[in-house]
Design a protein that fits this description.
mainly beta; Virus Head Decoration Protein, Chain: A; 2 domains; nine-stranded mixed β-sheet; four-stranded antiparallel β-sheet; 2 helices; 19 strands; disordered C terminus
Length: 270
């Protein structure tokens, strides 16, 4: 069932329909009515106990990291506002004042604030309380009116060769490494980034450089890149923007093979 924090003295109390229905279903089940209907409200989440190790309050539904500079406190571990989404993180269940203890979701379906479009969502250091939808993060099971049900700990987005991510802080598309065969000459592209000015396509462009050898280079174009003379472009992903939020549609490649060709007579004249 969903987590319901204690009501404290002086708090403006608003009855919860979800809590009331959960209690009714439990009582009805104990009285022989229904068929384990209280299980219908079960979330199946996994929680751990944390304490707020920062100097500021952490709001409910905010993503947090677990700094190893802290210590155990009655089994609870330290939590701070998210600073690195690449490290383990969770979502606190309620607002935590500095040094206050509480629960933190680390797995299962969790409802958080979301923005943008896409099948996945992830938090960022700049916005740990609002998850950005796109091609990165954890699966979005359902979203509506700025809220989304995410499945923490489930299968994640494509992270193979030439995987494309969008960094909302730098406004750049980040491309992971991959193997590219150009005119039977192999190159391993290291992770690189290209600037993203708006909706468009991230591509891998192969072209001859000054020494006459082929070389792959990521490019960004607001229109789909097509092969040009002495060049060949393979589209890796499409980026769409909605109210300033990016969504990435990934094309999957194990490796890429291209052939650069041109008019021999024109090349000789050049």
């Amino acid at each position: 069932m969903a987590f319901h924090p204690d009501v404290v003295p002086g708090q403006n109390f608003v009855p919860s329909a979800l809590l009331s229905n959960n209690v009714r279903r439990i009582v009805n089940h104990l009285n022989g009515f229904g068929a384990l209907r209280q299980n219908g409200a079960g979330s199946g989440t996994v929680r751990i106990q944390v304490y707020n190790a920062s100097d500021d309050s952490i709001g409910a539904g905010t993503a947090v990291n677990f700094p190893e500079t802290g210590v155990f406190c009655d089994g609870a571990i330290p939590a701070i506002h998210l600073v690195d989404p690449a490290k383990p993180w969770g979502v606190v269940t309620r607002k935590l004042a500095p040094a206050e203890m509480g629960d933190c979701f680390i797995s299962g379906p969790v409802t958080v604030a979301v923005t943008g479009n896409g099948d996945f969502a992830q938090p960022s250091a700049a916005s740990p309380d609002v998850f950005t939808r796109g091609s990165s993060g954890v699966p979005v099971l359902f979203a509506s009116n700025g809220k989304g049900l995410l499945n923490l700990g489930a299968g994640r987005e494509y992270d193979g060769p030439f995987a494309v991510r969008y960094d909302s802080e730098t406004k750049r598309a980040l491309i992971s490494g991959g193997y590219c065969l150009i005119n039977l000459t192999g190159y391993h592209l290291l992770a690189m980034a290209v600037s993203v000015d708006g909706p468009g396509y991230v591509a891998l462009q192969s072209e001859f450089i000054d020494n006459g050898a082929g070389h792959p280079m990521p490019v960004f174009s607001e229109s789909r890149p097509y092969p040009e003379y002495r060049k060949c472009s393979i589209t890796l992903a499409r980026i769409t923007m909605n109210n300033g939020n990016a969504s990435v549609k990934q094309l999957h490649y194990g490796d890429i093979s291209t052939v650069i060709w041109g008019n021999c007579e024109e090349e000789e004249e050049a």
